[in-house]
């Protein structure tokens, strides 16, 4: 093998996606290289999926930063009419329509498909170098499996759209972005079956690592279409060794407040009323921590780096008035967005040497 597979993984987090977008912009400014020059495999969930799609489609990091700073209010526009129609907020319908988001995404990606952008980056099929690949997790509410000659419904499951596979080549980038970011209660279910990939893979590095080391092959009668990227064409993954990987994972920041205070637990005899307050954050945080445990266990510090800014970092204590509460996924206030951008810049500056050493290694 001539060089390691360089993977960029970006978490979900709503408008907090401004944080990884800003960090990537800082990396680009200091290296003089676009993310497409620094990474081979891009994977992102929800807002991280939108960033990953944008980078893979050739958008500038500055365009993505601008998306959060100047389009957040339009994306999370909750009109009084929508509230009345939905029964006053989230009671009977999603808090936001995806109409504005879809229009913005359409302006960015037009009608480009996953196959269009994949082929744009991978024209020389004879090359032995790694190709550019994109993976976008979503979650399927009504999946089906083939049983005999019939397709039958099966359990909920994550779906990872992968440019390595032929069967996803005609999927439009706009649709992929809306499938991965259809957060429950925030946006409607998309295509009548897909919701936010963060339900299962909010920290998607685990999925990228699994794909990279998978050396299994497609059967001859399983209905799968082999990949259309690599000359050997039958593998379900890249068949690499863990030592062949270099994974940079970026979170969307945290307030470090995803816990249950002992005073709230009391006897611990909880029912629906007690659990409902904590379940959304518990479900999201748990899959982040599971992915982090898995990836950090199987990869070494030389092959894996996690960037995870926190809003209670002493280095941003002067911004405490901005971060004195949990920052919602639908935060749109400009001072808070600019505070998150400053948080990302300071985090990058503090860890700049280590970050650049990691992304520049051979």
From TrEMBL:
What the entry lists under Pfam families is as follows: Patatin
Q: Where can the motif DGA/G be found?
A: 196-198
Record: active site: 46, 196
Q: GO terms for biological process?
A: lipid catabolic process
For the motif GXGXXG, what are the positions? 12-17
Keywords assigned by UniProt? Hydrolase, Lipid degradation, Lipid metabolism
What are the residue boundaries of the PNPLA domain, all occurrences included? 8-209
GO-annotated molecular function: hydrolase activity
- Return the motif ranges for GXSXG: 44-48
UniProt KW Hydrolase keyword: yes
Identify this protein by name.
Answer: Patatin
Lineage here is: Bacteria, Pseudomonadati, Bacteroidota, Cytophagia, Cytophagales
């Amino acid at each position: 093998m001539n060089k390691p597979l360089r993977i960029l993984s970006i978490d979900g987090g709503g408008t907090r996606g401004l944080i990884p977008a800003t960090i990537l912009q800082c990396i680009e400014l200091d290296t003089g290289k676009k993310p497409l020059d620094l990474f081979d495999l891009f994977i992102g969930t929800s807002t991280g999926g939108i960033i990953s799609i944008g980078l893979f489609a050739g958008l500038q990091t500055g365009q993505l930063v601008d998306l959060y700073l100047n389009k957040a209010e339009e994306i999370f526009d909750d009109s009084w009419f929508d509230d009345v129609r939905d029964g006053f907020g989230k009671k009977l319908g999603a808090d936001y329509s995806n109409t504005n988001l879809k229009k913005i995404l359409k302006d960015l990606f037009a009608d480009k498909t996953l196959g269009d952008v994949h082929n744009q980056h991978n024209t020389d099929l004879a090359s032995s170098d790694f190709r550019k690949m994109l993976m976008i997790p979503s979650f399927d509410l009504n999946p089906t499996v083939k049983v005999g000659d019939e397709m039958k419904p099966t359990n909920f499951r994550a779906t990872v759209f992968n440019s390595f596979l032929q069967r996803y080549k005609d999927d439009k980038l706009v649709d992929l972005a809306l499938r991965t970011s259809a957060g429950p209660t925030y946006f409607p279910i998309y295509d009548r079956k897909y919701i936010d990939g963060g339900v299962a893979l909010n920290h998607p590095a685990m999925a990228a690592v699994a794909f990279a080391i998978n050396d299994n092959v497609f059967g001859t009668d399983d209905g799968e279409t082999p990949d259309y990227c690599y000359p050997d064409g039958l593998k379900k993954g890249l068949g690499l060794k863990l030592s062949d990987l270099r994974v940079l994972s970026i979170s969307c920041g945290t307030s470090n407040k995803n816990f249950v205070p002992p005073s709230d637990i009391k006897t611990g005899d909880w029912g629906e009323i007690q659990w409902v307050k904590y379940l959304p954050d518990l479900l999201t945080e748990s899959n982040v921590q599971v992915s982090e445990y898995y990836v950090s266990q199987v990869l070494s510090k030389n092959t894996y780096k996690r960037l995870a800014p926190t809003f209670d970092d002493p280095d941003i204590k002067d911004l405490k008035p901005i971060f004195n509460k949990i920052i919602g996924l639908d935060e749109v206030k400009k001072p808070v967005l600019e505070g998150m951008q400053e948080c990302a810049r300071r985090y990058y500056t503090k860890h700049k040497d280590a970050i650049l050493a990691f992304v520049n290694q051979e």
